[in-house]
Amino acid sequence: MGARLFTSLSRHFFLILVLLFAIGPIALLFINAVKPPEEFQVSPFSLPAHFTLENITAAWNMGEYGRAYLNSILVGCSTVAIICIAGGLCAYALAKMDFKGKGGILAFLFLCVSVPLGMFLVPLFYMWQKLHLMNTLTGLIIIYSAIFLPLNIFILRTFFLGIPKELSESARIDGCNEGMILMKIIVPIAKPAFLTVALLAGLYTWNEFFFANAFVQTEALKPVSTKYLTFVGNFSSDWSKISAAGLISILPFTVIYMFLQRRFIEGVAEGSLKG
Amino acid sequence: MADMVSLSSKPRPGNRRKRKALLPWLYVLPALLLTGFVIAIPTVGTLYISLTNWDGIRPPEFIGLQNFATLIQDVQFYKALKNNLIWLLLFCTIPVSFSLIVAVLLSRVRRGQMFYRVTFFLPYICSTVVTAKIWSWIYNPFFGINKVLEGWGFTNLPLWLGDPDKALFSVAFVDGWRYWGFLLILFLTGFHQTDRSLEEAAMIDGAGKLRIFWSVIIPQLRPTLLLIMMMTMIWSFAAFDYVYVMTGGGPGNATELIATYMYKEALQNQAPGYASSIALALALFSGIVIAVFGYLRKRGWEI
């Protein structure tokens, strides 16, 4: 019994060390964001002796985060909506309908996931200039919808494949057409899968910066991720404010993650195991 | 009259059949249009642009394979390629084995397993731009971790990001810090599908812990392990975020990767033609990895 307790304790000891390693840097961001700058100068690695929200309000105003939040929310919601609709329809057809070319579409989508982003960056950049989509949120929404679509189609398709055929067949006998079956039977059952897809697409969109950095230079249109880079560039010496801006950037999804952890974790695992 | 009726009613079943054949295509159309427009067409575009001399403004001039001839003599490209290969070696060994060890330990923990899992995965949720800056600050020799270490009596501390010999490892460490939690999740999912009774049987037969790990757990995890290797290799070639934010490829070109080099050539040096040939080289490496693993998958993951 004693030996068992010992292994269990040493296991936890090791895991707690790993835990400190994993969240230490993020904790550092949190504690320095709510610490007065004077205190930060003296003891950047200790817990705050005085608590203040001043850094956060200052960073919010200096970094024009209200506008950045609005941009990110707009881009995120539109991307999620497009992915749920276009992805849901496509995944449904690929899972539940028989037609020629299905294998080809699956192969195409698999190729789309595997192509490195750099492979289409350059022509896309000049296409967007020609189409006047440069420096627009619409342009960003179209890019994000497309690059996050294939993965989410795979997740939705897997879920749809698990729905028994009998359900849609009995509905068909009752006189439902394909559209009604999709809306009245499939979508309600697939709600959890759609939620996972929405969360993942939302998260990836919120954090994305490869394209945001190249395609949106207008300050007023920048989403939260690239706005943070601007902020760091402008106030590079003031780490209290930079911590606060970082906190502002990661807080929404950290909070959502705390509440819906299981769904995020399972979604990410499923997405990559399918892709 | 009778003929008219039969004529007008006859095509209906055919129409319905046609509509039924069209319906799936109607459903997949929006997704195909989007991915085709944003991914497929520009990807084909890259193939063409890589054969041109182009500054992004004037019409591109066709020069055949000249960009590739320049590429195979480009010292900067080789430096980036070498860094990418070091990156790949690091990532295929350290985060993979570390997350596997933690996954094995974690699968034996009853209380708090979910709590550990959630916190280990947190770095993956956080924006890379933000975590990159936290680590840049930690590495800062004037007020970061070195200050603490000095306080503990350490001297001659490395400059981390400022030292050309250590910068690449310092940045890779940060990317690994984010990446291993993701691998942990995949390993745990893989464990879920393994047969625990085999472990118990081996234990009854008197096998030691290490023996069980190598002879019972690892063989069962083989598909997960190979998938993780494939993803890690592809991502190592495409690595971009942390280098771009933390060092921008510097000092000098000590941390330059293929993706950051391409990004620079395309957007800062106004050489989209040349950048496209770099992108193709990048795609070639991922293509090789995918082809090899696709072959292995067909053979049922046997090596």
Automatic annotation (TrEMBL), chain A:
The keyword Transcription regulation does not apply. The chain crosses the membrane at residues 12-34, 69-94, 106-128, 140-160, 181-206, 242-260. Pfam families: BPD_transp_1. Residues 69-260 form the ABC transmembrane type-1 domain. Belongs to the binding-protein-dependent transport system permease family. Keywords: Cell membrane, Membrane, Transmembrane, Transmembrane helix, Transport. This is Carbohydrate ABC transporter permease. InterPro entries: MetI-like, MetI-like_sf. The keyword Protein biosynthesis does not apply. It is a multi-pass membrane protein.
TrEMBL record, chain B:
Keywords: Cell membrane, Membrane, Transmembrane, Transmembrane helix, Transport. InterPro entries: ABC_transporter_permease, MetI-like, MetI-like_sf. It comes from the Bacteria. Its main location: membrane. CDD domains: TM_PBP2. It is a multi-pass membrane protein. The chain crosses the membrane at residues 21-49, 85-106, 118-138, 167-191, 212-238, 274-296. Pfam families: BPD_transp_1. It is found in: Cell membrane. Residues 81-293 form the ABC transmembrane type-1 domain. The keyword Transmembrane helix applies. Belongs to the binding-protein-dependent transport system permease family. This is Sugar ABC transporter permease.
